[in-house]
């Protein structure tokens, strides 16, 4: 066989394997989907790693106060501990992955230290006993949701400020903290 014919065959073989190699590289660049259902994972894009967020039990911490014909209402939840064990540096978007069959309702709250616990205020309002009431607003934070893989979703929180946060899911909170840059 001539040298030019060998070179031609080599080039054809290399070109025919490029799509397969490119597909393998694409799959290798994306971390696998979570192995556990209904657990929220922090996605570290640079290391292509998933870290499960701590799951804390949530208990109601609502409060109603009356004072000379006025009232105030606070609907809140508390989780144990003064700070999350999962900490990330701020200054960039945070990505989370959750594997689930149907996307349930996830709410994202800011938490503040309250004694030996952290408290997330869902809503608060004030009013007069025999008159108008303030229009309470929900304190949930926004995040983007998109499909991720075959059976998971990607949740993106846009460059959060330093603080304590948590995804409320039923009677649990998947918590994390954002530290200053």
Structural descriptors:
elongated, ten-stranded mixed sheet, 181 residues, single chain, disordered N terminus, 15 strands, five-stranded antiparallel sheet, 1 helix, mainly beta, 2 domains
SSE order, one letter for each helix or strand: HEEEEEEEEEEEEEEE
β content, as a range? over 45%
Gyration radius (Cα, Å) is 25 Å
The helical percent reads 10-25%
Q: Rough shape?
A: elongated
Unreliable spans: 3-27
Structure description:
This protein has 1 helix and 15 strands, in the order H-E-E-E-E-E-E-E-E-E-E-E-E-E-E-E. The protein is mainly β and 181 residues long. It has 2 domains: 30 residues, no CATH class; 148 residues, no CATH class. Strands 3, 4, 5, 6, 7, 9, 10, 11, 14 and 15 form a 10-stranded mixed β-sheet that branches. The protein is elongated, with a radius of gyration of 25 Å. The N terminus is likely disordered.
Spell out the blueprint of helices and strands:
Layout: H1 3-29, E1 40-44, E2 49-52, E3 55-57, E4 59-60, E5 63-67, E6 70-80, E7 87-89, E8 94-99, E9 107-114, E10 117-128, E11 137-138, E12 144-148, E13 152-157, E14 163-169, E15 172-179
């Amino acid at each position: 066989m001539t040298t030019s014919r060998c070179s031609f065959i080599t080039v054809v073989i290399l070109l025919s394997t490029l799509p397969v190699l490119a597909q393998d590289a694409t799959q290798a660049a994306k971390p696998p989907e979570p192995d556990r259902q209904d657990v929220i994972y922090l996605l570290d894009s640079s290391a292509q790693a998933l870290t499960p967020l701590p799951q804390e039990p949530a208990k109601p911490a609502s409060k109603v106060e009356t004072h000379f014909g006025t009232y105030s209402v606070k609907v809140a939840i508390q989780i144990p501990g003064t700070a999350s064990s999962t900490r990330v540096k701020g200054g960039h978007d945070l990505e989370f992955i959750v594997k689930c069959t149907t996307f349930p309702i996830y709410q994202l709250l800011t938490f503040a230290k309250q004694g030996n616990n952290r408290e997330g205020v869902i809503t608060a309002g004030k009013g007069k006993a025999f008159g108008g009431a303030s229009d309470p607003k929900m304190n949930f934070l926004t995040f983007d949701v998109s499909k991720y893989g075959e059976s998971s979703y990607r949740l993106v929180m846009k460059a959060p400020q330093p603080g304590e946060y948590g995804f409320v899911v039923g009677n649990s909170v998947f918590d994390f903290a954002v530290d200053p840059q």
